[in-house]
Structure formats: C-alpha cells, structure tokens
Amino acid sequence: MVMTTNTNTAATTGTTTTGATTTGAVTPAGTGGDAGGRTGRIDFAKAAPKVFRALVGFDAAARESLDPALVELIQIRASHLNHCAYCLHMHTNDARKAGESEDRLHMVAVWREARHFFTPKEQAALALTEAVTRVADAGVPDDVYAEAAAHFDDAELGHVLALILTINTWNRVALSTAKRAGTDERR
C-alpha cells in the first residue's frame, strides 16, 4: 500500500494516490491474487477512493516530524508481525533507499536478541509497535507504554502511535486485497 516517505500526490482516474495507479474495480493482473496469479480482489483505491485518500492523509500526517529511519523500522516490524509480504518488501526497499544498513534490516525481526543494532529510542518504538500490533493478545502493557513515553514527547508519541495504526491498516488492506510482494504500485 502507500506507506512511503514519498507523499507527492497525483490524480489518477479521479482518485488521489501517492504514486499508485488504479486501473479498475478488480486487482490488475500480476498485483494480487493467489500464488497462481489469479486475481479478482478489489482495487481498494478505486473501489473506495474517499477512504483511500483519507488513509493516505492519515499516513502522511502520522509520519510528520518522525525520523524517516524510525518510520521504516516501525513499518517493517508491523509488517513482519502481520505476515504482510507486500508491505515488508516495500518498506525494506524504502529503508535501503534511505540508507538503512542490511545488518539492521536483517535484525528487525529479532531486535530483542540484537539490541545493540538499535538505539534505546528505536527499541522502545519497536516494543510499542509489537504491543499495538498484537493488542488482542495482552493489550498494551504499562511498562511498554511507559518506556515509549520516556523516549518520545507527547506529540512524537502521538505520531508513533498513529504510524503504528496506519501500517497495521495498510497491512490489512494489502492482505485483504491479495497484494503481491514485488509489485509496488507507487512506481
């Protein structure tokens, strides 16, 4: 989905997107469907353009004033947890383009065992990302929230929470519409 630092908007068939093109009411060939390439799922941007534009706006507002490297780490970790290959592929590529090291990208999934790759602030954001993403498991524990609050002021913490909410939403959109990893529509 549209989860990038590229927030330039362009009108496509009457729909505002951030680089994504829309071609019809069902997923274009090669971008969704099952492993056999079958399609038939909706193109979310085309089917619900107002909702899509609102989500793009929410996403852009969420990342405002946050460090771009932190943005990608949060999006990568949530995408791991949600098993969203489409978003994981997109955000690891975005992180590389922004100068993120391969070592850190490989360690995001196991950050607790490789803490020395991440700052305490990044660790707090990753722990909060996990808690919010898995909110049904145990809620957001007080200690996880307190650790994040110790590293972010209220405005930053609000943006971090909003970013976690947006990537979880984008993951669910991508999974529901069977987006295929490697078919980044922003290009």
Features of the shown structure:
187 residues; mainly alpha; two-stranded antiparallel sheet
Describe the fold and architecture.
The protein is 55% helix and 3% strand. The protein is built from 9 helices and 2 strands; from the N terminus they run ββααααααααα. By secondary structure, the protein is mainly α.
List the helices and strands and how they pair.
Elements: E1 10-12, E2 15-17, H1 44-47, H2 49-63, H3 68-81, H4 85-97, H5 102-107, H6 120-133, H7 135-138, H8 142-151, H9 154-176
Antiparallel strand pairs: 1-2
Helix pairs in contact: 2-9, 3-4, 3-6, 3-9, 6-8, 6-9
Largest sheet: 2 strands, antiparallel
Number of strands: 2
Approximate shape: globular
Query: Beta-sheet strand percentage?
Result: under 5%
What is the count of helical runs? 9
Spatial order of the strands forming the largest sheet: 1-2
Distance between the termini: 12 Å
Stretches with pLDDT under 50, minimum 5 residues: 1-38
Share of helix, binned: 55-70%
Q: Based on helices, strands and strand pairing, what is the structural class? A: mainly alpha
Mean pLDDT: 83
Q: Radius of gyration, rounded?
A: 16 Å
Would you list the SSEs in sequence order as H and E?
EEHHHHHHHHH
